[in-house]
């Protein structure tokens, strides 16, 4: 029931994630300002995610998820009300995006840790992580295309309305799902000491730290599709919101296939984990230089496939290598690296797209990722790891 609720909720969230930057772009017509919306949303995780991870290790994960999901639902309702009853401004989009980021900073480490708590046997963790990723990418397939249709047929405000209703599915499911593991929650530790202890643990574990650094590189340079692909759709392919939505659906199909691949075959070895984001970067470059919608969609499909193959394998590797008492804090670092780095990556990609052509911006982002991954492989001596 939890998986069904999560799928429904994620479809609504993806519809909002498409509507939000398109709303900002329609008001400002400026890619850099659109990137600031991403900054506003993902800035709170920089300061709150580590605290949230410590809370996950201290308190009931289910209750924290209930709080975060309810908060996200309220923000979606506020977006809907502001658009239907008032003329929403760019500053209001920034404020609501910031509020969304606060609840996301609680939601991410709680949701990542909750996957482990409802799976009884460690050998199923890679499959569970892949299914979790598959749910995310099923939503990525249907959400953007549905958002494009809804925006064109009814209006952009209906995307936010649908999202606010969709949260009910996962909120209700939390009342029925049972934890398969009883994990001890140490509530006696000082919060700052607890955070410091978690950071030291992650740093001193060679595999965990390497996976986190790789994730950081990917998050900085690759997943800023709302900035890069929206600009590509509008300015290079001369499209509209449907074009953007359909391109994102191609990306989602590839991501779904990547998650299905991992769910079927398990996580990759370390060398392939590092190779996958390089391949994702190559296909992203090809996307930027294609002038045909369908070819761009095909390249985005491959980008999504290799990105999710890498990210799912990173997640399951970290889950399996982390001790239970550190899980919330380590997954909060995972969430911090993934979400907290997005503001910087969004500004970087937005500035490149705004200063040059979208194609040049995409090229420079992808090349930055490739160079940093090669340097990480050389520094960590990945080619000599024993699998």
Automatic annotation (TrEMBL):
Q: Where in the cell is it found?
A: Cell membrane
> Can you tell me where the transmembrane regions are?
31-52, 64-82, 160-177, 198-223, 243-265, 272-289, 295-318, 330-349, 361-379
Keyword list (alphabetical) reads: Cell membrane, Membrane, Transmembrane, Transmembrane helix, Transport
* Topology versus the membrane: Multi-pass membrane protein
Top-level division of the source organism's lineage: Bacteria
Q: Any coiled-coil ranges, and where?
A: none
Q: Name one Pfam family in it.
A: MFS_3
Domain Major facilitator superfamily (MFS) profile residue range list: 1-384
For this chain, one GO molecular function annotation is: transmembrane transporter activity
- Keyword Transmembrane helix carried by entry: yes
Q: Name one GO cellular component term.
A: plasma membrane
Chief location of this protein within or outside the cell: membrane
> Which PROSITE patterns would you find in this protein's record?
MFS (PS50850)
> What is the protein name stated in its UniProt record?
MFS transporter
Species in which this protein is naturally found: Campylobacter ureolyticus
């Amino acid at each position: 029931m939890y998986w069904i609720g999560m799928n429904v909720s994620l479809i609504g969230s993806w519809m909002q994630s498409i509507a939000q930057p398109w709303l900002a772009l329609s008001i400002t017509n400026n890619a850099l300002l659109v990137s600031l919306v991403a900054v506003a949303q993902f800035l709170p995780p920089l300061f709150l995610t580590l605290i949230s991870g410590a809370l996950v290790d201290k308190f009931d994960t289910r209750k924290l998820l209930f709080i975060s999901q309810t908060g996200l639902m309220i923000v979606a309702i506020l977006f809907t009300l502001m658009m239907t009853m008032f003329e929403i401004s760019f500053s209001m989009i920034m404020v609501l995006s910031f509020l969304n980021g606060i609840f996301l900073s609680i939601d991410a480490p709680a949701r990542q840790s909750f996957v482990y708590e409802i799976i009884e046997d460690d050998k199923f963790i890679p499959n569970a992580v892949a299914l979790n990723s598959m749910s995310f990418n099923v939503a990525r397939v249907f959400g953007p295309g549905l958002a494009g249709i809804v925006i064109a047929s009814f209006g952009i405000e209906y995307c936010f309305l649908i999202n606010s209703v969709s949260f009910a599915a996962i909120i209700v499911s939390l009342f029925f799902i049972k934890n398969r593991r009883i994990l001890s929650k140490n509530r006696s530790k000082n919060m700052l000491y607890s955070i410091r202890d978690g950071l030291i643990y992650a740093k001193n574990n060679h595999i965990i730290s390497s996976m986190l650094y790789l994730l950081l590189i990917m998050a900085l340079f690759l997943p800023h599709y709302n900035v890069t692909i929206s600009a590509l759709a509008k300015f290079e392919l001369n499209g509209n919101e449907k074009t953007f939505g359909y391109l994102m659906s191609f990306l989602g199909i590839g991501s779904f296939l990547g998650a299905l691949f991992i769910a079927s075959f398990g996580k990759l070895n370390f060398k392939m984990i590092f190779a996958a984001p390089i391949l994702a970067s190559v296909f992203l470059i090809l996307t930027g230089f294609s002038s045909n919608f369908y070819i761009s969609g095909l390249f985005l499909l491959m980008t999504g496939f290799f990105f999710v193959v890498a990210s799912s394998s990173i997640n399951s590797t970290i889950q399996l290598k982390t001790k239970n008492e550190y899980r919330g804090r380590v997954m909060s670092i995972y969430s911090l690296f993934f979400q907290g780095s997005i503001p910087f990556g969004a500004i970087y990609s937005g500035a490149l797209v705004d200063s040059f052509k979208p194609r040049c911006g995409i090229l420079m982002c992808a090349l930055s990722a490739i160079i940093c991954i090669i340097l990480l492989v050389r520094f960590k001596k990945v080619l000599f790891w024993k699998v």
